[in-house]
Amino acid sequence: MANFSKSNVPQFSVEVYQNEFLPEGGREVNAIVTVTSTGGGTTGGIPLAGSTPSPAYGPGQGPDAAVVLMVDCSGSMDYPPTKMRNARDATAAAIDALREGTRFAVVAGTHVAKDVYPGNGRLAVADQKTKAEAKDALRKLSAGGGTAIGTWLRLADRLLGAAEVDIRHGILLTDGRNEHEAPEDLRAALDSCAGRFTCDARGVGTDWEVKEVTGIAAALLGTADIVADPAGLAADFTRMMENAMGKEVADVALRLWTPVGVEIRFVKQVAPTVADLTGRRTEAGPRAGDYPTGSWGDESRDYHVCVLVPEAGIGQEMLAARVSLILPDPSGAGAPQTLSQGLVRAVWTDDMVASTSINPQVAHYTGQAELAQVIQQGLDARKSGDFDGATAKLGRAVQLASASGNQDTAKLLSKVVDVVDAATGTVRLKAKVAEADEMTLETRSTKTVRVKK
User: What are the C-alpha distances in Å from 233 to residues 254, 345, 384?
Assistant: First the structure.
């Protein structure tokens, strides 16, 4: 992996929002950690309010990057025939959005994976000539065969792994279920690829499995979405590629150090989407662990850290955790670079007002995490025929979406339930729901809104 000079690493800042006050005997400490990256002049993730990008690179320049586009070419892509044509057009649009000098390849995915451009296990370097050649290769793609997504990912990993670049990224499009390999084979492929490249996944149409596509994106720290109408693929692929080209630095880890006696309950990303990172910890020295965050451009993300501290008496205080942003040495030989850090504190008090107030950021994101959870539970209940359970869970989702101002999710919910009273979460399940509407709600259930500060 290529080295970073100080000039092309964005500036990171860490802000901690919490109520540090605990009552006597209190142990649970919650904090929202806002991580902001600036200086890359990009627009990935959440745009910074009032920010004016200041590119670190000249036109057409950027960190060395490699991208592999994985296109579903299984037989179902021919039903209707416009689906395959739209997929070819979308991939061509993504290729047009490649920055000059980016290494890239196109993989046709069926029950096997084939690198159709440039071929022979190589990556091409994006310029006017190679982009035109790649689009010529796309025109020859046809639908036929099955679906084994793990083989696509493993080929992408081999191609990307051979490149000496800063940013490695995949874009994966599928229209069907992963029926030609066992679920454990896909899981093994994801485990093998995790931490080696990021990947955005898209499901086109309505014949694919939401949990498969969202699982790929979650494991590989990318985005997942539905493109119900294949005609929308080109615009979506262009946005995805522009976002990938906006990344400035990869492999950033959120490092959590805790004192003796402190237990970690969970570490979650809570904006722009909910993603539980707790189980992805890798040890990083005594009482320290790293949680992967993937690639960054100019953006801001929020993380919820929850720890249990030892009981202490009134007037005692302690450092509950130290949160740092870490960039590993690309060569693996030197010490990692600490980009920024923040402190989580615990102070015991007999002031009931201080110890019982909930920090607004913590309250907001606790609600957003519950919102994502009850949507999934409600849709699962609906599919299993538990309509009372579905009504209760989706009603709670409507209540949470309304209270937090998550209007996008509220609109998606209104296509699945009739809202009687949003404030109390009183709803009725719709008798008929379009499959695309239900899948869109499930796919986008983890998207959150920022807390109003």
Answer: 33, 47, 31
- Structure tokens given for 431: 């008798």
What pTM does this model have? 0.91
Phi, psi of 282, rounded to the nearest 5 degrees = -120, 135
Q: How far apart are CA 67 and CA 81, in angstroms?
A: 27
Residue 416 has pLDDT above 80, yes or no: yes
More confidently predicted of 226 and 335: 226
User: In this structure, what token pair is assigned to residue 349?
Assistant: 């008090």
Query: Is residue 248 a contact partner of residue 296, using CB atoms and an 8 Å limit?
Result: yes
Helix H or strand E encompassing 265: strand 263-271
Q: Cα 361–362–365 angle (5° rounding)? A: 85
Q: Which residue in this structure is represented by tokens 């890359």?
A: 40
Element holding 108 (H helix, E strand)? strand 103-109
138-161 mean pLDDT: 97
Integer-rounded Cα Rg, in Å, for the chain is 23
Say if strands 249-257 and 263-271 run parallel, antiparallel, or are unpaired: unpaired
Q: Confirm if 232 and 88 have CB atoms less than 8 A apart.
A: no
Q: Which two tokens stand for residue 149?
A: 């997504």
- Burial readout 99-133 (b: 16 or more C-beta within 10 A, e: otherwise): beebbbbbbbbbeebebbbbeeeebbebeeebbee
